[in-house]
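job 3f2a | input accepted
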Amino acid sequence: MRVLGLDVGDRRIGVALSDETGLLASPLPTLQRVGPRKDVQAVAALVRAHGAGAIVVGLPRNLDGTIGPQAEKVQAFGESLKPAARVPVRYWDERLTTVEAERILSERNVPWQRRKGLVDQVAAVLILQEYLDHQNHPALP
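job 3f2a | predicted structure (141 res):
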């Protein structure tokens, strides 16, 4: 089953997709946010186009694990996806994935001008890959 991974921000939504085996996450083009209804429709269209059986949404918890205002906004978006996409929506702790995505792009000498467009994509891949790894190896931390 394919799984769609999302890094939901205020301006962009990073998107990743798993392979059929649920082992490997790959990036899809980043979505520009245009409005709640259209954003939900765009994600639901990706679910249908790629035959995804679930959506994993990165939940930006605070460093102490609590849910803050940004996480509440992301949860509201995730809940609005459920009726439109008609697949399960799961949340995955994404603390520091954007920092990790920035680090990865920096180490690969990606010019800072290009990073803005790629960081959400890389963060979505990290979120989805961590989720897939946990599903396939639950004993791992």
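job 3f2a | The chain has a mean pLDDT of 91.
job 3f2a | closed
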